[in-house]
Amino acid sequence: MGDTLEFNEIYQEVKGSWNDGRLRFSKQSVVYKNSKTGKVDSISASDINQATWRRVCLGHGIKLGTSTGNVYKYDGFRDTDFERISEFFKANYKLELTEKDMCVKGWNWGTAKFSGPLLSFDVNDNAAFEIPLSNVSQCATGKNEVTLEFHQNDDTEVSLMEVRFYVPPSQTDERQDPVEAFAENVLTKADVIQATGDAVCIFKELQCLTPRGRYDIRIYPTFLHLHGKTFDYKIPYTTVLRLFLLPHKDQRQMFFVISLDPPIKQGQTRYHFLILLFSKEENITLTLNMSEEDVERRFEGKLSKNMSGSLYEMVSRVMKALVNRKITVPGNFQGHSGAQCITCSYKASSGLLYPLERGFIYVHKPPVHLRFEEISCVNFILLFYFQGMKGKIDEYSDSDEDQHDAYLERMKAEGKIREEGNDSDESDGGSDESFNPGEEDDDIAEEYDSNASASDSSEDGDDSEDDGAKKKKPVKKPKVVKEKKERKPRKEKKQKDTGGPKRPMSAYMLWLNSSRERIKSENPGISITEISKKAGEMWRQLGKDEKEEWDTKAGEAKRQYDIAKKEYKESGGSQHKESKKSAGKKDEKKRKPAGGDKDKERGGGGGGGANDSFKSREFIPTSESSSDSDHKSKSKKSKRSKSKKVKKYTSLK
């Protein structure tokens, strides 16, 4: 057997959630690395005094107990791993790996046992469930009842808020209340943050970027207290993941970043990073609220009772000593401006990106920390922005053709057409004295008479004094009409045929539908997005023979689809039926106004003066009826010009 044992895809239980990672057993320690956060937990081999093997929801698991009272749970092992781990523990840790079953009866009455930092609820000497008392945030008592409230974990979809225990009254010892005794056992090990005693030191009115505002930071031995005008935050040192000290681009300010896991929260907002902004010129003299002997014994020379220097140096030095984590600073990177960061933007906000030795960090809105092992690919995009002025266009143009603007020429041409159309409307809309009969006769001959020359000759005899004006303006007539004719109607959107056969699925989708349940069973608790990622990886790892099977199924589905689609088209399809219905409705609409016009013509609908000039359709000659139908087809002209032309036409007749 080797000196180490390593296991991948092992889950660690943290406040009700399972964190994926890698577990390694060595002779000196047990090390677990979280795949998501990169946090490393190390347990010294000499501190382990208990090891239990048990069957859990994710296969098999190990519960390790230490001499300091901490309990660590790791799940995701296979049944065959028991012998290897048991032999390793005997050879290196001198410890027996015992097997213990869990109670699965589902009973809600039993015995509550306090064993160090754990509250175990046993049924028939088998544990039904265990509660780490460090997860308890509040303990309240009532009549024969104890209520436990828990710290919430944002990584879980469903969280346990509270548990209530019914404690029956004691039959033997009446001097001690069993409810109070139960609550005292809980509070001795619970993680209830209380500001007891004096703070080690206090920093007044520090500028905080996230959460935004100015806060008084009070440093206690076990937690950090942010006191603001509106909100207060208590941050245990155990939740501090990393510390960063980053110089601002202007070289006059410093960022001090505290990474938190789990984050602090205010309502629905979560703050995974605490960012403080300091000025390099601000100095402070600090005195710790401890004796020199206590300072020396607790911090081992890292801090002294009296210290002075820059404010950011004092805060970072105190935090490093209390949290017992190193401070990460930028590496040897230097940008073109001489700064150790790059100005960039994330989504809609601008910020600074700092290349570090093992990752990147972006500040400040929102703060983002990326480790190199999380990065799968890097894309470089070179963008050019051109901003030109009108006076400098000639410097970059090669020829006169480059200056031609097709859109501008088109807009000018349309403007001229509109002006000419307005001029013709004004000439038509004037009084009868300004009316030009020669010009109107040309339009009428063009619209109503098949022989335009005959109408011209008849009109020349009546209005000879306007011949000069008529000859000067022959070009205006066809322009407006021609431009209007050139406008094409809008294309109707093609409606989707919902009654046709559905398209066949690809080979990958067929494989995914058959493998989805298997992926869920092999990865309990996996989300929908993770299923897609996992399925994509599994599909890429399939061999050619396995993929060929699904390609054959997809080809067969495609052939069936082609046959069904052909039969559907031959039968006419739903669109063909709808088009017939719509065509029938249009024909009915066209018939209705025709009948109405006939009724109006037969009824007369007016006085005797109107009936004198009226001619019904059956008394109009063939040439007149054809011209009348042509007149109705050209309905784009204005109503006023239309009425004048009809009057002029009837007077000519």
From TrEMBL:
Residues 413-508, 539-653 are annotated as: Disordered. It comes from the Eukaryota. It is found in: Nucleus, Nucleolus; Nucleus; Chromosome. Residues 539-587, 594-603 have a biased composition (Basic and acidic residues). GO terms for cellular component: FACT complex; nucleolus. The keyword Transport does not apply. Keywords: Chromosome, DNA damage, DNA repair, DNA replication, DNA-binding, Nucleus, Transcription, Transcription regulation. One of its GO terms (biological process) is DNA repair. One of its GO terms (molecular function) is DNA binding. Residues 422-431, 438-449, 457-466 have a biased composition (Acidic residues). Residues 501-569 form the HMG box domain. Residues 501-569 bind DNA. Residues 470-479, 633-653 have a biased composition (Basic residues). Signal peptide: none annotated. PANTHER family: FACT COMPLEX SUBUNIT SSRP1. Component of the FACT complex, a general chromatin factor that acts to reorganize nucleosomes. The FACT complex is involved in multiple processes that require DNA as a template such as mRNA elongation, DNA replication and DNA repair. During transcription elongation the FACT complex acts as a histone chaperone that both destabilizes and restores nucleosomal structure. Belongs to the SSRP1 family. This is FACT complex subunit SSRP1. It comes from Scophthalmus maximus (Turbot). The gene is ssrp1a.
